[in-house]
């Protein structure tokens, strides 16, 4: 069974119905981390984040402390928080902005103090209507409480924080496209180099971009110390992490568990977590880190939930989304829906992504809807190889951002694991189980 004795670092207030309010936040230790941080030198706060070895919780898993250290020799102009979270079946940041917005706000202020930034932005997905309302309310209350604005809590540090709603584009989850959107432009990813945010970011200035969950860890790290955070988990995967569990499980939801100490099986089957598969059916496959990630079969259920452990098996923890498919799941339909999403959300800037996504979607559509041909299965792989040569993971880059090269992962995994299911769709003129 799952190891559940670790502290709840970012979800400790979830049990309270009023967890989003300032009163509840202050009653449960809110803004104490910020008060402590303001008694420290900014470099000391940054050193605690370094000591925590906190991997970014947005997808790429880049160490937050290392990202900050890249800018310390040059003044940082802006801090930007990525709350776009548009990956299908990913909803952990959505959970945080609705359930504990003050924790996010406090984390942003602590990070801004460590970086000596006086202007910060929280970019939230436009569809998060309640989350946007609650984050804006939390910001307003923080100003009234003295935690934002000039001379925070009587210190010499000042910060202004703005929440910016997105316009519903998945591509704006990519940090340079997000920066373009913040500048009022269309969300097109920028070419790196030269547009690494640490060098040329928002308004052409050095910028730190971190994820909502990453920021939400800051109050606990400052209060308890980076070493205490690093003592949790294992290897490079320190601390706890939120996982968005969905699909064919009895109890889908968001769960905070210690990394590495727990496995996919623990998360899916523990009665306090996923509660097992619906009707006790066998697992057919899982998507371990958002729909960009290559799939795993049931033989890898005992793999630890760690960044390196999952990468060694050819996938990623990515956005923290785990989707369970049981023996009743039509993998062709699941793959088609994933590709349809990517095709719709391609920004259109790069040819392999713009054209290739549409071709893949059309072939998947006809396989699912009765017009497929046997040769379509290998044609899909051939197209995928043109978008991401070699079909390796991580994928080879042929586009400005990773959206295009990530698309083939689900098709390649589905065909590699369930080629006969694709042939069955051709032979039966659609899904044989409909």
Number of beta strands: 10
Instruction: Determine the CATH superfamily of the largest domain.
Output: NADH-ubiquinone oxidoreductase 51kDa subunit
Helicity level: 40-55%
Number of helical segments with 4 or more residues? 18
Strand order within the widest sheet?
A: 3-2-1-4
Q: What is the architecture of the largest domain at the second tier of CATH?
A: 3-Layer(aba) Sandwich
Mean pLDDT, all residues: 95
Largest sheet: 4 strands, parallel
Question: What is the CATH top level name of the largest domain?
Answer: Alpha Beta
Structural class, please?
Answer: alpha/beta
Low-confidence stretches: none
Shape assignment:
globular
Strand portion: 5-15%
Element order: H for helix, E for strand: HHHHEHHEHEHEHHHEEEEHEHEHHHHH
**How many domains make up the 3D coordinates?**
3
At a glance:
The chain is α/β, with parallel strands linked by helices. The protein has helices spanning 22-27, 32-37, 42-52, 64-69, 92-99, 101-115, 129-145, 175-182, 212-216, 218-224, 226-230, 264-269, 307-312, 331-345, 351-368, 375-387, 403-406, 408-428, and strands at residues 78-83, 119-124, 160-165, 207-211, 233-234, 237-238, 240-247, 253-258, 283-287, 321-326.
3D architecture notes:
The chain has 434 residues and is α/β, with parallel strands linked by helices. It folds into 3 domains: 22-225, Rossmann fold (3-Layer(aba) Sandwich), CATH 3.40.50; 235-326, Ubiquitin-like (UB roll); 331-428, Up-down Bundle (de novo design (two linked rop proteins)). Helices cover 41% and strands 12% of the residues. It has 18 helices and 10 strands. The chain has helices spanning 22-27, 32-37, 42-52, 64-69, 92-99, 101-115, 129-145, 175-182, 212-216, 218-224, 226-230, 264-269, 307-312, 331-345, 351-368, 375-387, 403-406, 408-428, and strands at 78-83, 119-124, 160-165, 207-211, 233-234, 237-238, 240-247, 253-258, 283-287, 321-326. α7 (129-145) links the parallel β2 (119-124) and β3 (160-165). α5 crosses α7, α14 (331-345) packs across α18 (408-428) and α15 packs antiparallel against α16 (375-387).
